[in-house]
Specification:
9-stranded mixed beta sheet, alpha/beta, Dihydrodipicolinate Reductase, domain 2, 15 strands, globular, 360 residues, Rossmann fold
Length: 360
């Protein structure tokens, strides 16, 4: 049995720098090739990354992506291309027998993603999106706590926010290009909020959603919020924006307490990750009122970033383990489809002025 898989990168985007290191630290992956439409860009990318986190054998630069898909030594491809370009290359990679790790949002539309995943299933290759926090040890503990009704009680509500300040020159960023990133901040940032919510609710599909544009440019969301209604009156809300400071907070509330963290997407640096469980009670004696707080921090040992146990490394390690075992796990494409479906419904609602969109 093979002990590692061989990777090819279709693109030299900035996020691929982090994932270069992830492959190198994974222990079960080797990066052979980096492709780019501009081979000089691929060479510069490789030189920079190799100087920072070197592979024993320097990966090679390839012009375009076809040669990577045709390389029989390559087992899997990582696709950080803009959303508008992903469908073609995911399908072509699947047809070439390559397993696919795809950045998010996965596709311009749900129909596109269905085609992409059907191609992967037809050719028996693994499909997974690039949401890293699904792979960290803290997230596994968080889900364990949510499933224990004795901790915060029955889950009732999830609130989340992911934002960053685009800056003065942001108008030229591809995130605002309707051809390349049609979902704007909703796809780039809201995808994480929706994934967190869906996982917290055990992958349950909401009954209906509403979306609201707070700002848009060329039809692309720059700042927006969304509301999700689940069965039995359970709710969720999120805010995503290119207009406010970096924030990645969430609060998950139950009938007995609430769970919170301020770094749910990318954990703060340090030798552990954590989240907080809080319970508030009110003590009243005639005219005297006091609110009491009981708070517990749950710590998970291990470096949060830049480490073999970090979430970015575990994403690539876990993916490679699935490839090495030879049986694709359908749970990963299923959660991508669910996230895409809800995201598209939120976008449709916002385009209709906040009109509720029902999901069957």
């Amino acid at each position: 049995m093979k002990e590692h898989i061989v990777w090819g990168f279709l693109g030299a985007a900035g996020i691929a720098e982090k994932n270069w290191a992830s492959v190198q630290r994974s222990g079960n992956g080797i990066l052979k090739s980096v492709g780019s439409r501009d081979v000089q860009r691929a060479r510069a990318f490789i030189a920079s990354c190799q100087a920072s986190v070197p592979f024993e054998k320097t990966p090679i630069a390839v012009e375009g992506y076809e040669a990577i898909l045709a390389d029989p030594e390559i087992d899997a491809v990582y696709i950080p291309l803009p959303t508008g370009l992903r469908k073609e290359w995911v399908i072509r990679a699947a047809q070439a027998g390559k397993h696919v790790l795809c950045e998010k949002p996965c596709a311009p539309s749900l129909d596109d993603l269905v085609e992409m995943i059907e191609a992967c299933e037809a050719h028996q290759v693994q499909f997974m999106d690039g949401v890293m926090f699904n792979h960290n040890r803290r997230f596994a503990k968080l889900i364990e706590v949510l499933q224990d009704v004795g901790t915060i009680g029955e889950l009732r509500r999830v609130e989340s926010c992911f934002s960053f300040l685009g800056g003065e020159d942001f108008e030229n960023n591809i995130r605002l290009d309707p051809r390349l990133e049609p979902a704007g901040c909703l796809g780039d940032l809201g995808w994480y909020c929706l994934r967190l919510t869906l996982c917290a609710f055990n992958r349950e599909l909401p009954r209906s959603v509403r979306g609201f544009f707070l700002e848009e440019k060329n039809g692309v969301p720059v700042e927006m919020r969304g509301d999700l209604l689940f069965n039995e009156g359970r709710t969720a809300s999120f805010h995503c924006s290119f207009n406010t400071t970096l924030e990645q907070s969430c609060r998950i509330s139950g009938t007995e307490g609430f769970l919170s963290l301020d770094d749910f997407v990318q954990p703060f640096g340090g030798d552990h990750t954590a989240f907080t469980i809080s319970r508030l009670t009110s003590h009243n004696e005639v005219c005297h009122y006091t609110t009491l707080l009981e708070r517990e921090e749950i710590r998970i040992p291990g470096n949060a970033t830049n480490d073999p146990g970090s979430q970015e490394t575990l994403l690539f390690k876990n993916f490679a383990d699935l490839v090495l075992q030879g049986t694709p796990d359908p749970a990963w494409p299923e959660i991508s489809l669910l996230t895409q479906r809800v995201m598209e419904a939120v976008l449709q609602s916002a385009q209709r002025g906040g009109e509720p969109v029902k999901l069957s």
